[in-house]
From TrEMBL:
Listed Pfam families: AMP-binding (PF00501), AMP-binding_C (PF13193)
Family: Belongs to the ATP-dependent AMP-binding enzyme family.
Domain AMP-dependent synthetase/ligase, residue spans: 87-450
Transmembrane segments: 289-309
Native source organism of the sequence: Brassica cretica (Mustard)
Entry keywords, A to Z: Ligase, Membrane, Transmembrane, Transmembrane helix
InterPro entries in alphabetical order: AMP-bd_C, AMP-bd_C_sf, AMP-binding_CS, AMP-dep_synth/lig_dom, ANL_N_sf
Protein name stated in the entry: 4-coumarate--CoA ligase-like 2
All copies of domain AMP-binding enzyme C-terminal, residue ranges: 501-576
PROSITE patterns according to UniProt: AMP_BINDING
Amino acid sequence: MQVRYECNKAARPRDWRVPLRDNQGPLSQRSGTTAAVGEIGLKKTMALDRKSGFCQSNSIFYSKRDPMILPPPNKHLDVTTFISSQPHRGKTAFVDAVTGRRLGFSELWLGVKRVAACLYSLGVRKGDVVIILSPNSILYPVVSLSVMSLGAVITTANPISTPGEIAKQMKDSFPVLAFTTSQLVSKLAAAASNSSLPVVLMDGAQADEKGVKIVGSLEAMMESEQSESRANQRVNQDDTAALLYSSGTTGKSKGVMITHRNLIALVQTYRLRFGLEQRTVCTIPMCHVFSFGGFATSLIALGWTTMVLPKFEMSKLLSAMEAHRPTHLTLVPPMVVAMVNGAKEINSKYDVSSLHTVVAGGAPLSREVIEKFVKNYPNVKVLQGYGLTETTAIVATMFTKEETERYGSSGLLSPNVEAKIVDPETGRLLGVDQTGELWLRSPTVMKGYYKNEEATAETIDSEGWLKTGDLCYIDCEGFVFVVDRLKELIKCNGYQVAPAELEALLLAHPEIDDAAVIPIPDEKAGQYPMAYIVRKAGRNLSESEIMGFIAKQVSRYKKIRKVVFLGSIPKNPSGKILRRELKKLTTSKL
């Protein structure tokens, strides 16, 4: 059955809202109607299949979800102000799951206001970049929201990154100030090229560290009473709010410019998906878009209480669940697998009966893992999703228990998301149940890559379509299935690993003539990097020597776990590595 919509098929803004709700309910419940769609005007009528959301007229898939409500795009508004204005009845925003310290919503917003005033007095202005290098903390959102309230840009660094990796991020983003902890300040100092970089410690003040300049503590900022008034600079919704680093679709790590409007749209997506005032535990690093977009921004607007663990440890997670009775958990696949493997002991030793929803992201879960999880935790539904840093996390999601039964799927397109399936060879637009590259248009799509117009143009076209680099199909009921990766990224424990980065390091070794890196499947991590190596003539370089060489230079999730030696790396006439041939070879050897 088809439903008729009228819309303007010309170019539309990226945050074009479709379909509009009318008194007949959302698209998924209609048997047929005519409705105004879009913000530009009515020109042509198109046939839209209500089951799949696919439009025959323009080959676009439209979200079947109720649309989100967004502020007018020309309204001056920063995401911090938007979040603080959202009504709810929540009392406690964050609980430190280790120390028990609580941060109420009133204390949170007073802290944000005071820290923002202190940052302004230190010279931080609109457009300036501030870096945070810290494990998960109940104060992480205070820093992020304070920075963004000024129209400045927060960039998040992974605490497990090496000084060299952090140095690349700092060289690209050029922060004017940093927040870090006493344990990580030496790593920040080693990465900083600017010996006078001002640093605020998040866990107390100490003597200056060589290479940086300690200018105070976050706790002191939160307790200060700034009498000096500051000039409020107008923040546009299209201004960059956060700069999160991703390998994107082309391999090399790049700064993803996430705007205030992107984050506001994410908040509204969370509102439609989850509702108000639930309880959860944060175990995923807040430097990652999945956690930053949820725990450090969106869930605050919904009045949720978040118990914060500095890192994932199963025993501490279970203790926090028993003590604080969360309703929701957000996990990446290795954590889900760990709960499956330890289910007998968990159910006998811990009371996890408060839990009713697990939100899983970062990589797909197999049907076998989901079925085992549900068998061991029968009162819990597992909601999967799909997203990129470039889409401010989720663009396809599951909302209900019924949707979780579509095994292998990432759910339906999120509110206000449009999708196209494009043949990667011909550029032809494809339809229902046809596999091609997934292109997305949404109010959550990034502004672009920081100081990299070429990469931005390669990833987002002139009409606002983001090319994901993932091979997908959308079935007859609108569910999104990720089949394979066109892009060459490896997903290990939810993190992105660019083969090109590891290959460059390998080729710098004096005994390696050629190298190629591809993923090797792993039940817990999803994938690990493995390397095919061509040794220089007469050299006897071993597998362990190669793995050790890489391990000294990269974060642990980038470490190479397997090495195979070849006489030559298969390549096409233009010299590009034929990774599919290597993947076939890997399959035959496993």
